[in-house]
Hints:
The complex is a heterodimer. By secondary structure, chain A is an alpha/beta fold.
Amino acid sequence: xxxxxxxxxxxxxxxxxxxxxxxxxxxxxxxxxxxxxxxxxxxxxxxxxxxxxxxxxxxxxxxxxxxxxxxxxxxxxxxxxxxxxxxxxxxxxxxxxxxxxxxxxxxxxxxxxxxxxxxxxxxxxxxxxxxxxxxxxxxxxxxxxxxxxxxxxxxxxxxxxxxxxxxxxxxxxxxxxxxxxxxxxxxxxxxxxxxxxxxxxxxxxxxxxxxxxxxxxxxxxxxxxxxxxxxxxxxxxxxxxxxxxxxxxxxxxxxxxxxxxxxxxxxxxxxxxxxxxxxxxxxxxxxxxxxxxxxxxxxxxxxxxxxxxxxxxxx
Amino acid sequence: xxxxxxxxxxxxxxxxxxxxxxxxxxxxxxxxxxxxxxxxxxxxxxxxxxxxxxxxxxxxxxxxxxxxxxxxxxxxxxxxxxxxxxxxxxxxxxxxxxxxxxxxxxxxxxxxxxxxxxxxxxxxxxxxxxxxxxxxxxxxxxxxxxxxxxxxxxxxxxxxxxxxxxxxxxxxxxxxxxxxxxxxxxxxxxxxxxxxxxxxxxxxxxxxxxxxxxxxxxxxxxxxxxxxxxxxxxxxxxxxxxxxxxxxxxxxxxxxxxxxxxxxxxxxxxxxxxxxxxxxxxxxxxxxxxxxxxxxxxxxxxxxxxxxxxxxxxxxxxxxxxxxxxxxxxxxxxxxxxxxxxxxxxxxxxxxxxxxxxxxxxxxxxxxxxxxxxxxxxxxxxxxxxxxxxxxxxxxxxxxxxxxxxxxxxxxxxxxxxxxxxxxxxxxxxxxxxxxxxxxxxxxxxxx
Lengths: 315, 448
């Protein structure tokens, strides 16, 4: 029996966004990473092969983090004391991109020095996050943006309460931004409109719909991503942006990943569980449309890398 | 796919004889579409129309139930491609495969049978066992049944499976699997012993051919294994996703009966480097009905069971937690008192931050009808009156010595009113986001 396969064809498509700039393009990166460009739902090769594989970013910090799981502390060891060394090791661990998260204690000089040391240590395109407090974000990200003009760094994280200064810094210095809205299709859309109204082209915006970890609200983020991608394919321009999500951050703050003692025996081996927690959060989000996943543990990176290789080549 | 009233009307005699009790055939058709009357009330409907109407009433993906004494695992009857369109109904059954010839079979069955893990107040277990008929199947079934009453999937060739079925009278196991070489014997066996039957093929065309032939032999509880290629190896993630999606689309959008069955998967058999956990996660997200694991390991099962629960949560009903006074990290009477709503994601965000930071606290979870802080406040479900009522109802003042109440930063505007409602308490405004709670508690509240 010849079964006729129903194929969807969509009027809309996702914008392509390129992170980083090589010397020929005015930056210093050894290569760029392009994501997005989808014309159909994730990995539906029989309709249209995805033009770019999802990218994996490894998250590092400007200072040794105090609140990360001890498993990550043991793993990265002394590299956590120096962002340049941490960046080198992250590149060796097969990251496509780096996320450098600045710390609330950083001065402007600290932040600029950390960013520059990472750019020197690694040729990967870079995403820089402020510490997550509006005033401090602006204080640090503006000089960072100026010091890295032309590198096509992604500056983050823009939210509805605080996006103007970051977007202006991106506009003035040829950078990109990460736009985060709290798990809501309309709020994502609205923030994208506000940012593009400031004159930043859509191909310089990554949309961060926010996710929860496995067991801590992943289903909300998962469905918002499916809905955003469906809206993009149906032709809603302000949703046609690649999606960046942070399963590493979310998974590693859960008790399942963070705590090894005093937990139920039914949770099993701590390290294996923690890596599954991060890996499965990331894999579920790839299935729902993630273009960039930000991870923390090299084993999760390998797992997710295998999954992406698999999803990109039907066999 | 259900027919509309007009479509049903066209299949009726259209004589308006009124013998069904309704004034016209159209009125009867409308009642039929609304499932308020039975077709049997019409004495003159043709056999052909009866068959068409019966077919249209069947769900596009057949519900298959595996049964054993006191346990059931159901798959199928799904109605959407994306969970946000309605919900996914039947969580894929998680089975662990064991070998009949395994000398440690009894011990393994016991360990798996006893596995229970609690997630937000729910106890999860493995759903059943898959037995590979590589030895004395009847003896292996006896061993399993000594420790577990959970449903079985039996894997092997027809003769080997037949030897075990005598021991499973009254149960509905799943036989794995019929293919183009053995389907007649498998179908006979399934019909004779009233089993569900898995069907495998290297393409959707082959699967559709097989299910039609097997159905013609009277076996209707079928399960599809679309995960093999022409060489008998497992396809990779991209191909599996494509096939699972195509099958569900054909069933739901085209009402294509030959593929309107739940799917069975074997995550460990995909030799493509991605690993059992990753394949199983894909199968949970994308359309599996029964998942057969080869690894029994708590650190693997726990995240898979949680993922399954999350994906199959009804998105139209925000999951709520019980409004009450929660204790985090064994708080002393001097530990701080925090207030939030009973929307599950809000509750878990707050509880997880505080718990993860190792800070003891009392958490007053008010009944905000399952809404988040801002939504509930806007809807009038999280106001000073409700917070005060919760503090009184939960007898917080009897359990806690200090009189400081921390409210979410998003509802700072409630402080004044709340001070009037709770004159004995000092109202403090906490951070807007849960993630900032540990820092707030350490700095502003000086919690050790």
